[in-house]
Each structure stands twice: as structure tokens, then as C-alpha cells.
Amino acid sequence: MQLLLVEDNKTFAQTVIDSLLRIPGTHITRASSRRSALDALAVGFFDAIILDLSLPLEDNLLDDAPEHGQAVFHQAREVAPGTPIFILTGSDPDEFQLSLTRYGHQADVWGTGTTISTIVHYVKDRVDELLVRLKEMSLDVSATDAITIDTRGRALDLSVEQKRALKVFTRLRGGVSCVARKLTGGLSDARTIKLSVIDDNGHVKVLCVAKLGRKEHIRIENAAFDSHVELLRMGAATPRLNHLHMGLGRFAGIFYSLAEGYDDTFFDLVKNKPSEAPGVVEKLREALERWIGVGTVRQVKIRDIRRRLVDDDALGQVLSGTTIPRLAEIEDIEVRAFESCIHGDLHGGNVLVNHEGFPVLIDFGDVGHGYTCLDPVTLELSFAFHPDCQSNSLSKAFLDNLENWPNIEKFMQGTPYAATIEACRDWAHDHGGSDKAVLAAGFAYAVRQLKYGTVSKERALILINSIANQLLDQA
Length: 475
Ligand SMILES: Nc1ncnc2c1ncn2[C@@H]1O[C@H](COP(=O)(O)OP(=O)(O)O)[C@@H](O)[C@H]1O
Ligand SMILES: [Mg+2]
Fold this sequence. Notes:
Elements: E1 2-6, H1 10-20, E2 27-31, H2 34-43, E3 48-52, H3 66-79, E4 85-89, H4 95-99, E5 106-107, E6 116-117, E7 119-123, H5 127-145, E8 148-150, H6 160-172, E9 177-185, E10 191-198, E11 204-214, H7 215-227, E12 240-244, E13 251-257, E14 264-265, H8 266-272, H9 277-287, H10 289-292, E15 296-301, H11 302-309, H12 312-319, H13 327-331, E16 334-342, E17 351-353, E18 359-361, E19 368-371, H14 374-385, H15 387-390, H16 393-399, H17 408-412, H18 418-430, H19 435-449, H20 457-474
Parallel strand pairs: 1-2, 1-3, 3-4, 4-7, 8-9
Antiparallel strand pairs: 5-6, 9-10, 10-11, 11-13, 12-13, 14-17, 15-16, 16-19, 17-18
Adenosine-5'-diphosphate (ADP) binds at residues 183-184, 192, 209, 211, 238, 256, 258-259, 349-350, 352, 362-363.
């Protein structure tokens, strides 16, 4: 158990430390001021924080003030939500001190099956009560930590918080160990892990996919699941099992059922069984019917559609080193566009397909209100630009022909993927609102591609300029 003790009174701190060190497996980081506590919070992962609210600004100063303790309190809530904070007070806590409990939760931080209060007050004179509480807590923490993560000899490359998330999930689901294998991740903080939860008979109890990332990102994905993904017809998306976001520092985890038997991505299917792909596009469109069916048509500017994929703050960076002629003029063009909930990142790697040709959606971080034709246009254009396609012949067939994208007949000529392109484009036109909205979606998609290091800027600009010419001609 890792504890942060924030206490400036040396004698009192030493008494507490002496007692705590008698609890097996306990490590203590001591901070004696606001500054050193904030430094510790910035780098460490703690199972609980013991906090004296009256602190000096810096070590060895004597300007004790409750503001400094409060600053530590709020920073702890910010960087480590749900991590228990035990507040020490000299006498019975006053009204203000008690009011801090409103920031607390009832949470099952270690997957024990019971919830605890994450903010509790202890009077220094009765510090024994805190020590008893910490002793109990250490048993919960060490039982969770004792869960093993097997990797079958492969590197997993997870932070202590991400490992904790896997252990808490395993314990919550009645497992004693788990087998974890990395599916994606490397560059960013986010990792996608295939996880088997093993029970004490050695049986696989749960087979799932864990996404472990920054809590802000996982919260958005979880909220999108609550508001939108759950409304889709049964089987359209992978079911969500848990969202863990307490006591995991700046991380959180979202857990989905593994899409068993959905062994191909849509990219694999288009490449290996192109004749089956148009049927899958149809089924995908049906799977999103609950979103599309309640959309509305509105007059918007192309700028609005581009903003759904690249917001104004990011645009400068995305465009750096490139020029799109007459950009403002193009973005001022008004189009009739159909709006609904969209997936928001519907490339072929985010659609898994089973051997009967049924698709299932994954990856819900961008789900939300948007322009309906962005999804089918993204699906179609991902064959050209997505890194998973660049290594195969799929992307070549598309990349060499991008100047013809606005003219579907020319664009389809001579490719073995014509029927798939047509299925995506029909979907875009049926639910786009207008031809111009479909062009705008292609434009927005292509502008976003400029930000990726894997994408040839030259190709993205060919697409952008061909769409721009068409739009300006029609304006
Ligand atoms: N529920 C699932 N079942 C099977 N495989 C999955 C599932 N969720 C994700 N994957 C696999 O993990 C990869 C990454 O997951 P994804 O949710 O798309 O995260 P990212 O944001 O990294 O793209 C997917 O491309 C897919 O291969
Ligand atoms: Mg994905």
C-alpha cells in the first residue's frame, strides 16, 4: 500500500509513520508543505492520502494556513479522483472542513464488491481510529495487488495505474488472475488490451477488451456509450462491461466484451473478399438506423462540417506548412446537411466483421452529434488514407485516383472495389441532405488527414483541391 502523508508537524508525522510501518507492505511518502505535497502528487501513485489541512507553503516555512491544505486537497481530487483522502484535524472538524466531504464518493476503489467513502475526517487526538482504518484498507489493497497479470512472456508496457485497473476489474469479476495481451497502443498513454479473467478453477470467466487511457478521454467514450451507443439495435456495438475511474490516478479504463468470432476488420474484408463488402456496408447502415432515423436537415456552412473533425483551435496546426487556396471562401459555402448522431471515426478498422458478414462497431470516443454523411465518407476514404491500408494494395487503388473522387463514375472506373465505393456513397447521399454535403464531408475528412504523419500531404491536397474546385464551380 502506497500512502502519501501530508503533515508538517514532525513529531506527529513520525508517530504516525512508526505505526504505519508496522502494517506489512506499506510505503509512505511524506510531504510537509503545500509545495512538496503537490510535487509528490505530480509524480506518484498513492492508494490513499492522509492530509493535515493546516500546512506551510514550503518545507521549513512557518506560514501554516488552511488554504495550503485545501490546495493540496483539490489537486489530489483533480489528479487522483476517487483516491481516498483522510483529512486530519486538530479538533472536531468545523463546518467548512466537513463541507469538503461533498467532493467525496461512495466507490468500490479496489474491486472488493463494497463501497467506501473516499473523503473522511479524523481528529489527530484519535489517530488510532485512522490507523485501524488503514490496516483494514491495506488488506483490501494487497488482495487486489496479489492478482497476477500474465502476459505469456510478452511485454505489456503498462503504468502502475493501468495495471491496477486490470486487477480491480479482474477482482470485481470474480477472478484471481488475468491474461493480458496488448492489442494497440504505444505512442500515446492509451492502451487497448485483450483480457481474460481467470477464476480459481483456472477457467476463463470473462473475455474482454480493456481500453486504458487518460481519464478525460475514457470519460468521453463512456458518456457517448451511455447517451448514444446503448440506443443502437442489439448486436450493433460491443457491449460495455465496466467503466473504472476511481483510484486510478490520471487513468481510467473502459471494458467491452470481446467481439468473439469477429475476426476480420472491414479493411481485411474489402481486401480479401471484396464481393462481400457491399453487403456489410448495407448491414452497417442498418445497424446505425436508430441514430440516422431521428436526424434533421439544416442549412450549415462547410466550416461547420469541417469543425466536426478539426476544430478551429486545431486548424492552424493541421494546416501548417500547407496552403488551401480560397479556404475561407470554400468554408463559407452553405449546404443542406442531414444531422444526427454519428460514430465520428468510422474507418474500416473500427468495424469488425464475423464470418457470416455481420459487422459490429467498436471505438466510441468520437460518437456524438454530427453530420450523417461523415460516417460513410470516412469509411470509403479510409481505404485510401488509414495506415492499416497503406501497407496493402487497397490504398494504392484509391490514392492514385483521388482527383476523381467528386465524380463517382470516374472514381469507380477500373477498381475491384467499385461496388463497395458505391455502397458507401449511396449511404452518404441517401442520408447526406445534399450532394454538396457529401462533398463537404470529403473535404472535412481530407483536411483532417493533413494532421497525420502517416499520410502524404500531397495526396490529401489532391483530394482537397478536387473537392474545392467542384464546390466553387457550383457556388
Ligand atoms: N470489443 C472488441 N473485440 C475485439 N477486438 C477489439 C474490441 N475492441 C477493440 N478491439 C481491437 O483493438 C483495436 C483498438 O481498439 P479501438 O477501440 O479501436 O481503440 P483505438 O482508439 O486505439 O483505435 C481495434 O482495432 C481492434 O482490433
Ligand atoms: Mg480504433
